[in-house]
Amino acid sequence: MEESGESVALMDQAIESEFVEEVRDILDSCEVLIGNLRSRTLPAAEGLAQIRRDMLNVEMRGSTLDQPLVTIVSHRLGEYLADIKETDLAGSKLDDIQAFVDNIRHALDGKVEAAHSAKVVRALPARTVGGFNPADVKITNVEVLLVIADKSTARIVERELAACGYRSCCVRSPFQAIEMAVRTKPDMVIVSGVLDDLSGVDLANAFSAMPSTRDLPVAILTSFSWGHSSLDNLPSRVPIIRKGPNFGDDLAEAFARLHIT
Description:
Elements: H1 2-38, H2 44-64, H3 68-83, H4 91-108, H5 117-123, E1 143-147, H6 151-163, E2 167-171, H7 174-184, E3 188-192, H8 200-209, E4 218-222, E5 240-242, H9 247-257
Parallel strand pairs: 1-2, 1-3, 3-4, 4-5
Helix pairs in contact: 1-2, 1-4, 2-3, 3-4
GO biological process, one term: phosphorelay signal transduction system
Organism: mine drainage metagenome
InterPro entries: CheY-like_superfamily, Sig_transdc_resp-reg_receiver
């Protein structure tokens, strides 16, 4: 049995070492791409698409091999890249991409521990969601985690948050949301009422029940008003944000009620 246990441990070490080397190669490749984008020897669309593919690969591999900080930062870089227009790929944007790459490398090399994830993500470059340039909008240090499966809905909420100067990160799985909330400690979570596997009400109750997240401000995004049966088990302290014409007012009211400034 001992030999079997040692064999498994050695296999795990080999897989982790292979992952580390693979990600190092990807990061080296990304730095070459950044250099080529700076010198304009590579079309912007091609370079950005390749870096996005690489980050998706790193994120997926990292999530299966217990590399939480690598996974979180690569996810954030993927979101940052999705917001960049090819025509806006100035030197400052490339500096930001390099900063993400550096943070992934530091996490990979053990220079930053997963316990410091919250500090790391707040220091990452802010996204330019919906045309709101960080240089034109006063960026606050308020971090909002979105748990929204529908991409179109997520973009609407992200744009509203960007207009307020809030930083946002979006995940689509309720289970990923729990890990992200525990590790990155956002100031607020906005949860869609409809999710796969667990409902938004389920997730709001989970956050309220766990000691590590019970004080985390949560709001639920829904098509329904108070009194609808789907909201019967929603914790009373969780405000609702209704889709449609009431969205802006409900969002502002939720911020005020949860003391998000």
